[in-house]
C-alpha cells in the first residue's frame, strides 16, 4: 500500500479572535469606573464589601471623601478609616453658588435628598500637591451607605497654574448589581416613565408634547429601532409615521443630531421629535427595521424581527401592521462605501450610552431591542434597551458626547465662558471639540466678518483650545524632548509656535508654548491627546514634572485686526512690572486686569490665527461675560464685529495657516505641512522625539505644501485630487474664495516633482476625470507672506 500524504496540521484547538477594545466596553457587571472632574464632585451608593480604588490621574490633585450611612449620618468608619479633614475644599466649591455649575448643583440636591449635612463632616483627605500622576488609594466598604468624593479646586487665576484635575474612582462591587434593575446610570431627572425593552422585543408608549425621551443602551453595542406618530393624527385614522427620507432631506444630514439639524418629521413635514443629547454620534436613518424577509433571504426563516415586534406593540393604538418598518435605527453603525454599498459593523455605543429626544407634539412611540444575532449589528450579543421619559419642565442643554481618547468617559458638549454673549448675537452654533462655537453671526454674514478682520477688528471665541500646565524641576527637559522648537531659548514671558511629532516624524499636534517661569510652562494645542502624550513621556523617562489640564479653567477670546491694539489698550490694565499692551511684542504675553487694578484677572498674548495684528485674552470662565463686555464696549467706535468659524477659516487659509485634520495629520511631517521653520535641526543641539526621522524626511522629501490659485469660481473642497494629465500628483487640503483676491485659492500637498511655483495643475471634480479646474502653484501665503501685519 502506498504511503498516504497527510497535510500539515496546526496543533491544538482554535484560538479566539484577538480584539482590542477600550476598558469601559466590558460587559462584566460589578466593575464600575467614575471620573470626578477637577473642581467637581459625585455621590455614589456603597454596598458592604465594595472595593474602591481612587486614582490621581494627572497628579497633584487632593481628594476629599465623605462616607455616610444610609440615614445620612457621616461616618468615616464605613471605610475603615478615621477622619482627618472637615471637607473644607468641597464646602468652598459648593459655596460658589451658581458659579459652581450644574454638576455641583445636582450634588447639592443629592446631599439634601439623602440628608447628608456637610457641616458635620468628618472627611478623609488623600493625596497632596506633590502626589505623582497615577498614584492610588484603596478602601473597602465595611457597611452600606453613600460615598461623596470631590476633586476640590477653586477658580484658577490666568497666570497661576494651580488647576484642578480629574480623579478616577474604580469600584469592584462585592455583589454585582442585578442585571435589568440596577445596571443603569442614574436618571437625568425624576422619570415619568421607566420602561425596560427586553431583548428581542418591542414596547410602545405615549409621550406628551414638550416631554423628553431618553433611550439607553443598557449593556452596550445593542441597537434599537425608534418610530413615532402624531397622536392626534392617529386619533383621526392617519397613520403618518416618522419619515426618515423627509427628515434627511429637510435637515441635510444622514441622521439628525443635536444643534441646528436636530429634528425628525413625518411625511407632511410635521416635526415630531428633536434630538437634544447624544452620547454616541453614530446611527442609521437609511435602512428599514429588520423584517421577516431579511431573515428569510439569508437562510433564517421564522427569525424574530423588529418589524413584527413593532406590529405587535403598536396594535393597541390601532396601527395597521406592515411587513417592514421605516425607523430611526439608533446605535446602528452603518455606512455607504465608495461603491455605493450599505455596510454595517458593530455599534459605537457603550453601556449607559443614550439619545435624548424632545417630543414636539403629543406622540405615540415604539422602541425595539433588535434581535439580529446573524451579523455584527449588535456586537454578537443581544441585550436590553431602556426608555425613560421626563417632564418638559426640566431643562436639558443640547450636547453631543466627545471622547478625547477611546478609553475616556464621554464629555458632553459645553458652553464656553462667552456663550451668553455670543448666543445673543447668533443661534448658528456648531459643535467643535466638545464646545458650542458660532459658525456665523446672523446680522453680519461670513464675508462682512472677514472684511472686519482685515480692515478693523473682530472678536472670536477660541476656548476649545486645549491647555496644559507643565510644572516641576524637569519641566524644561520634558518640553525640550517633546516639541521641535528649542525651549532653552525661550524666555519668561515669551511664546513660541511649535510642532509636536511622533518618532516617525508625523505630527501629533501643533500649538504654542508659554514660559511662565523657570520651571513653569503652558502648552496650548488642539488635541487632548497632546497633554496625555506629554504625561506618558514624562512617566517613561522618570522626570519630576506634572502635566495637568487647565482647559476648563482658562477660556480665551481673540481680538484680531488692525484696530485690535487700540481696543486692547482701552481694556487692559497692567502693573508696572508687566509689559503694557503698547509694549507687548509679537509672541509675548503679559498679565493684567480688565479696566483697572481691581478688575477681572487676565493673561494677554500677542498671538492669533488670522494673519493680522491680534491678541488673545485668557480668563477664568467666571469672568467671561465681564471680559467680552469690556472688549465689545470699547470696540464699537473702531468697527469691531464678532467673527465665527466660517470667516476664521477664510482668513487663516489666505494667510497660509494650517488646521489639524485638514492640512496635517500623523502621516504628515512639519515640512510637508509648510511649517518646517518650527524644526531647527541645525540650531537645536538637544535631541527630541522624531529628530532622526525628520532629518531623513527633510533630506528625502516626497511631498511639498503649496498654495494654489484656481482659474474657476467652482467650489473646491478638502480632499479634491490634483492632476498632471491623468496622473494624480496631490490633493487639496483647504480652500476658499478670497474676497480680497477675487478668486478661488487653496492650500495643497503635491509631489515634489510638480511643486515649483508656476506649475500648472488641474483640480479633479466628480470622479477626478470628467471635470477639471485649471490651477497654478503660487506661494503658500496669499496674504502678507512676510507676516508684516501681525508683527506691526
Mean pLDDT, nearest integer? Answer: 93
List unreliable stretches of 5+ residues: none
As a percent range, the share of helical residues equals 10-25%
Query: How many whole angstroms does the radius of gyration measure?
Result: 29 Å
Query: Helical region count?
Result: 15
Count of extended strands: 42
Terminus-to-terminus distance: 97 Å
What does this structure look like?
It is a single chain. The protein is α+β, with helices and mostly antiparallel strands. Helices cover 16% and strands 30% of the residues. Strands 9, 11, 13, 14, 18, 20, 21 and 22 form an 8-stranded mixed sheet that branches. Strands 32-33-34-35-31-25-36 form a 7-stranded mixed sheet, sandwiched between helices. It has a 6-stranded antiparallel beta barrel with strand order 37-40-39-38-41-42. 45% of the residues are buried. The mean pLDDT is 93.
